[in-house]
Write a structure and sequence with these properties.
There is one protein chain. By secondary structure, the protein is an alpha+beta fold. The protein has one domain: Immunoglobulin-like (Sandwich). It has two helices and twelve strands, in the order ααββββββββββββ. Strands 3-11-7-6 form a four-stranded mixed beta sheet, with no helix packed on it. Strands 4, 9, 10 and 12 form a four-stranded antiparallel beta sheet that branches. A two-stranded antiparallel ribbon has the order 1-2. The protein starts with a helix and ends in an 11-residue tail after the last strand.
Amino acid sequence: MNHHVLLLSALLILSAKSKAQSIGLDKKVEEDVPKSSIKPEVIKMDPSLSAPITVMHDLTIFPSIDQLVKHAIFLEPRVDEALYKVEIYAVKSQEVDNCNKHFLLGDFELKTLEVHGFPYYIFKSNTQIISTKMSCGDNIAKMKNVPSGKTELVKYISVLPLVVYAPQDIEIKYKIWKQDPRELDAKSF
Protein backbone atom coordinates (compact mmCIF):
# COMPACT_ATOMS: atom_id res chain seq x y z
CA MET A 1 0.00 0.00 0.00
CA ASN A 2 2.77 2.46 0.96
CA HIS A 3 4.58 2.13 -2.37
CA HIS A 4 1.36 3.26 -4.10
CA VAL A 5 1.38 6.50 -2.07
CA LEU A 6 5.05 7.07 -2.86
CA LEU A 7 4.48 6.34 -6.53
CA LEU A 8 1.65 8.88 -6.55
CA SER A 9 3.97 11.44 -4.90
CA ALA A 10 6.63 10.82 -7.54
CA LEU A 11 4.06 11.24 -10.32
CA LEU A 12 2.92 14.53 -8.78
CA ILE A 13 6.51 15.77 -8.82
CA LEU A 14 6.94 14.76 -12.44
CA SER A 15 3.64 16.38 -13.46
CA ALA A 16 4.59 19.60 -11.63
CA LYS A 17 7.89 19.65 -13.55
CA SER A 18 6.04 19.01 -16.80
CA LYS A 19 3.61 21.84 -15.99
CA ALA A 20 6.55 24.18 -15.26
CA GLN A 21 8.07 23.30 -18.63
CA SER A 22 4.81 23.93 -20.47
CA ILE A 23 4.56 27.48 -19.10
CA GLY A 24 8.25 28.22 -19.57
CA LEU A 25 9.44 28.19 -15.93
CA ASP A 26 12.20 25.70 -16.72
CA LYS A 27 14.03 28.23 -18.90
CA LYS A 28 14.45 30.62 -15.97
CA VAL A 29 15.84 27.82 -13.81
CA GLU A 30 18.30 26.80 -16.51
CA GLU A 31 19.50 30.38 -17.01
CA ASP A 32 19.75 31.48 -13.37
CA VAL A 33 20.84 28.35 -11.52
CA PRO A 34 23.99 26.27 -11.96
CA LYS A 35 23.33 22.64 -12.91
CA SER A 36 25.15 21.41 -9.78
CA SER A 37 22.25 22.57 -7.54
CA ILE A 38 19.81 20.15 -9.19
CA LYS A 39 20.33 16.62 -7.95
CA PRO A 40 18.76 13.78 -9.94
CA GLU A 41 18.36 10.48 -8.13
CA VAL A 42 17.25 7.04 -9.18
CA ILE A 43 14.81 5.66 -6.65
CA LYS A 44 13.57 2.10 -6.39
CA MET A 45 10.93 2.32 -3.70
CA ASP A 46 9.91 -1.31 -3.50
CA PRO A 47 11.52 -4.55 -4.71
CA SER A 48 8.24 -5.47 -6.44
CA LEU A 49 8.59 -2.51 -8.82
CA SER A 50 10.08 -3.61 -12.11
CA ALA A 51 11.83 -0.32 -12.96
CA PRO A 52 13.36 2.37 -10.78
CA ILE A 53 11.85 5.85 -10.75
CA THR A 54 14.00 8.91 -11.38
CA VAL A 55 13.02 11.93 -9.31
CA MET A 56 14.49 15.41 -9.62
CA HIS A 57 15.30 16.91 -6.26
CA ASP A 58 15.17 20.45 -7.55
CA LEU A 59 15.99 22.69 -4.60
CA THR A 60 15.69 25.82 -6.72
CA ILE A 61 11.90 25.73 -6.33
CA PHE A 62 12.33 26.66 -2.65
CA PRO A 63 12.57 30.45 -2.27
CA SER A 64 15.41 32.31 -0.59
CA ILE A 65 14.46 33.84 2.76
CA ASP A 66 16.47 36.77 4.16
CA GLN A 67 19.02 35.82 6.82
CA LEU A 68 18.08 32.13 6.70
CA VAL A 69 20.06 29.23 5.23
CA LYS A 70 18.38 26.35 3.33
CA HIS A 71 19.22 22.85 4.56
CA ALA A 72 18.15 19.74 2.63
CA ILE A 73 17.82 16.17 3.89
CA PHE A 74 17.77 13.41 1.26
CA LEU A 75 16.41 10.14 2.67
CA GLU A 76 17.30 6.68 1.42
CA PRO A 77 14.38 4.69 -0.07
CA ARG A 78 13.04 1.97 2.23
CA VAL A 79 10.67 -0.92 1.58
CA ASP A 80 8.02 0.15 4.13
CA GLU A 81 8.50 3.86 4.76
CA ALA A 82 5.32 4.03 6.88
CA LEU A 83 7.26 2.34 9.70
CA TYR A 84 9.81 5.19 9.86
CA LYS A 85 9.81 8.77 11.12
CA VAL A 86 12.39 11.54 10.87
CA GLU A 87 13.15 13.68 13.91
CA ILE A 88 14.55 17.09 12.92
CA TYR A 89 16.37 19.27 15.42
CA ALA A 90 18.65 22.29 15.41
CA VAL A 91 22.05 22.70 17.11
CA LYS A 92 24.22 25.69 17.85
CA SER A 93 27.93 25.35 18.59
CA GLN A 94 28.69 27.35 21.72
CA GLU A 95 31.00 27.38 24.71
CA VAL A 96 29.05 26.15 27.76
CA ASP A 97 29.81 24.73 31.22
CA ASN A 98 30.13 21.00 31.72
CA CYS A 99 27.54 20.34 34.45
CA ASN A 100 24.30 22.03 33.32
CA LYS A 101 21.81 20.98 30.64
CA HIS A 102 21.70 23.51 27.79
CA PHE A 103 19.04 24.01 25.12
CA LEU A 104 18.65 26.26 22.10
CA LEU A 105 15.39 28.25 22.11
CA GLY A 106 13.33 27.98 18.96
CA ASP A 107 10.48 26.23 17.23
CA PHE A 108 9.82 24.59 13.86
CA GLU A 109 7.09 26.08 11.70
CA LEU A 110 5.56 24.05 8.86
CA LYS A 111 5.02 25.94 5.60
CA THR A 112 3.83 24.85 2.16
CA LEU A 113 5.37 25.84 -1.14
CA GLU A 114 2.57 27.71 -2.91
CA VAL A 115 3.03 26.54 -6.50
CA HIS A 116 3.91 22.87 -5.89
CA GLY A 117 2.34 22.21 -2.48
CA PHE A 118 5.56 20.70 -1.06
CA PRO A 119 6.13 21.08 2.69
CA TYR A 120 9.16 22.79 4.22
CA TYR A 121 10.09 23.95 7.72
CA ILE A 122 11.45 27.16 9.20
CA PHE A 123 13.35 26.96 12.48
CA LYS A 124 12.43 30.25 14.16
CA SER A 125 14.95 31.20 16.82
CA ASN A 126 16.65 34.20 18.36
CA THR A 127 19.61 31.77 18.87
CA GLN A 128 19.43 32.21 22.65
CA ILE A 129 20.66 29.34 24.84
CA ILE A 130 18.92 28.47 28.13
CA SER A 131 20.21 26.11 30.81
CA THR A 132 19.67 24.67 34.23
CA LYS A 133 21.36 26.72 36.97
CA MET A 134 23.41 24.19 38.94
CA SER A 135 26.62 25.43 40.51
CA CYS A 136 29.59 23.90 38.71
CA GLY A 137 32.59 23.19 40.92
CA ASP A 138 35.24 23.24 38.19
CA ASN A 139 33.67 26.13 36.19
CA ILE A 140 35.36 24.90 32.98
CA ALA A 141 33.65 25.81 29.72
CA LYS A 142 33.77 23.55 26.65
CA MET A 143 32.61 24.01 23.06
CA LYS A 144 29.50 21.84 22.53
CA ASN A 145 26.69 21.41 20.04
CA VAL A 146 23.68 22.65 22.02
CA PRO A 147 20.45 21.01 20.71
CA SER A 148 17.10 22.73 20.34
CA GLY A 149 14.63 22.08 23.14
CA LYS A 150 11.92 21.38 20.57
CA THR A 151 12.16 18.88 17.75
CA GLU A 152 9.88 18.05 14.83
CA LEU A 153 8.82 14.46 14.07
CA VAL A 154 7.81 14.05 10.41
CA LYS A 155 6.84 11.27 8.00
CA TYR A 156 9.63 9.42 6.23
CA ILE A 157 9.23 10.21 2.51
CA SER A 158 12.24 9.50 0.32
CA VAL A 159 10.81 10.88 -2.94
CA LEU A 160 10.92 14.49 -1.69
CA PRO A 161 13.79 16.35 -0.06
CA LEU A 162 13.11 17.52 3.49
CA VAL A 163 13.92 21.25 3.42
CA VAL A 164 14.54 23.26 6.60
CA TYR A 165 15.45 26.95 6.83
CA ALA A 166 17.46 28.11 9.85
CA PRO A 167 19.46 31.17 10.98
CA GLN A 168 23.10 31.45 9.78
CA ASP A 169 24.81 30.03 12.89
CA ILE A 170 22.41 27.09 13.36
CA GLU A 171 22.94 23.58 11.96
CA ILE A 172 20.10 21.17 11.22
CA LYS A 173 20.48 17.53 12.25
CA TYR A 174 18.13 14.57 12.09
CA LYS A 175 17.56 11.07 13.45
CA ILE A 176 15.69 8.17 11.86
CA TRP A 177 13.18 6.37 14.09
CA LYS A 178 11.65 2.97 13.33
CA GLN A 179 8.28 1.91 14.68
CA ASP A 180 8.10 -1.42 16.46
CA PRO A 181 5.35 -3.31 14.58
CA ARG A 182 4.35 -5.20 17.73
CA GLU A 183 1.19 -4.06 19.49
CA LEU A 184 1.66 -3.89 23.26
CA ASP A 185 -0.95 -3.78 26.00
CA ALA A 186 -1.07 -1.26 28.82
CA LYS A 187 -1.51 -2.68 32.32
CA SER A 188 -4.79 -1.79 34.03
CA PHE A 189 -4.77 -1.08 37.75
